[in-house]
Amino acid sequence: MKVLVVIPARYGSHRFPGKPLHPLRRHDGSAAPLIEWTWRAGVAAAGAENVVFATDDERIARVAKGFGARVALTPEGCRNGTERCAAALAAIGPDGWGGEAEIVVNLQGDSPLVPPEMIHALLAAFDDPATAVATPCIRCDEAQARLVLDECAAGRVGGTCVVARGDGTAAYFSKRPIPFGAPSAMPLRLHVGLYAYRRAALDRYVALGPCELELAEGLEQLRFIHAGLPVTLVDVPAPPGGLWEVNNPEDVRVVEEMLPQG
């Protein structure tokens, strides 16, 4: 199974402009831009030759190439990371490095804490030929759930939550804590900013175009749900050091505390 890890990265985040190039510092004072930490996560799982940035910004491309990453320049009109993954494949072409990939992993550029084991678990879901799209989630412990709820109470996005159908596929994703009774009645399931697709599913996604749910929540994966395309959920354990995404400037401190040391 040939795999390509694509890291979509855009400069113009509404909540955090310039986020991909913002430096993250470890306890020892060493620093690297956010996208470099995310690239290291992808390389640890798939090898540098199988990881590529997808961006429309020359600043991001220049920095990425500076630390040794491959870059595919994509159109400005891409509406989200999934569309940008498809655009990266088109830019690479069938004869370029990675162009023959059967499975495409979308590792979002603001997710530097994703461990390689999580990507491997996601890819294992494709041993089932019925799996077309897969994404991981974590059942929150009390501390993680409290962090998500506190962020929501403060008016910030503390993470995306997901609820599952009985067959293990996703019923809905939201930037609000769902379901309403969680975590007292049932655990919150925190969605991880990571996806994998078969090529046909990625092509179908682009052909569908955006839907109202996707636009209302600001969550690209809802396009699959709206179209009735199953999204397989892969339950994974929380990494020992914790897991958080850089959605807001306030998240930098949280993620820096969780960065691997040494």
From TrEMBL:
Transmembrane segments: none annotated. Keywords: Lipopolysaccharide biosynthesis, Nucleotidyltransferase, Transferase. GO terms for molecular function: 3-deoxy-manno-octulosonate cytidylyltransferase activity. InterPro entries: Cytidylyl_trans, KdsB, Nucleotide-diphossugar_trans. Pfam families: CTP_transf_3. SUPFAM superfamilies: Nucleotide-diphospho-sugar transferases (SSF53448). GO terms for cellular component: cytosol. GO terms for biological process: lipopolysaccharide biosynthetic process. It is an enzyme of class 2 (transferase). The keyword Repeat does not apply. Its EC number is 2.7.7.38. It comes from the Bacteria. This is 3-deoxy-manno-octulosonate cytidylyltransferase. The lineage of its organism: Bacteria, Pseudomonadati, Pseudomonadota, Alphaproteobacteria, Sphingomonadales.
